[in-house]
Amino acid sequence: MQLRGGYPAVCGSRRGCGLAQPEEQRAEKNGAAALQTLWGGDLAGRLFFYYVRKSLLATIRSYKPYRDLVHQSRILLLGPVGAGKSSFCNLVKSVFQGYVTHQALVGSNTTGMSVEYRTYSIKDGNDGNSLPFVLCDSLGLSEKGGLCKEDRVYILKGHTPDRYHFDSTKPITPKHGNYIHCPFLKDRIHCVAFMFDANSVEQLSHEMVAKIRRIRREVIKCGVVHVALLTHVDSINLIAKDDFIDIYSYVPVKCKIQAVHRKLGFALSDILVVSNYVSEWELDPVKDILILSALRQMLLATDDFLEDLPLEQVMELPEMSASITRNSELMIFILLKRYKLPCFLVEVP
């Protein structure tokens, strides 16, 4: 099973892969047509991409956050203005709906289109149920403005409500009407995805590089794991459609990944790439595989965050009190462990 770089194995997740649910006929028809165009009638090629895409869809649909501590993993999208944060929300929704959608507002405004904090719970096009993750879109970053430090910290810790309108002159405060005073674990951010346009990442100013490095330190201080995502790789000069088959081995893309690693300090294994839907109205299974692979890595990163939570911090979460109360033996065991008392009197379930 390959978790990072290139295309994943047909059945790939550390949680295993369940049976794929039936795709919408429209998505299957579009996918088959795109594969026919790419592979020119090669049945083996068409089947390979069809099953990889279907396997990734099944893996993400059956995903459950670590130890069921939350029902949905929460992923925050951060990045410079125009990096493609809102576009990524649309990409993910399009794949699961079976057609290209534009729920999140996108555009070429130099100040960014996102002025609100938005949380997108993506619906599955098969049954209409919410998928096991939430994508959080926020104000873009700029050299001397954008999302301020206080707002970033409040978002990471779960205090910021959906549809909060950012004010460039002042951050949210506990006096705000919808401020979340006692956030649950489900309100907190479990993974941060730093978004960068592949065409401009090498031209980031010294001020922007310093700002992103500073934000990375803030994220690490909050204990949140993070990845980097390069968008718009389809716009890189001289790239052809066949290059998407093994995009991580394509030299210009490797140079972009190396630039992110060198300038911003991200581990090479934490740098992902996606190709955007810009003018297309039909889904492309090769692009879908890149999108789903990146999303899967983000979900695995959220599990790393949840798994690394200290026991004391988990036990202090408001949502844990009910489950502990229902299990008296577990409650006694936790208390004994906390105060370093002998545990031989309790049979741990």
TrEMBL record:
One of its GO terms (cellular component) is cytoplasm. The keyword tRNA processing does not apply. This protein aggregates to form microtubular structures. This is Interferon-induced protein 44. Belongs to the IFI44 family. The gene is LOC109701163. Keywords: Cytoplasm. GO terms for biological process: immune response; response to virus. It comes from Castor canadensis (American beaver). It comes from the Eukaryota. Gene3D superfamilies: P-loop containing nucleotide triphosphate hydrolases. The lineage of its organism: Eukaryota, Metazoa, Chordata, Craniata, Vertebrata. It is found in: Cytoplasm.
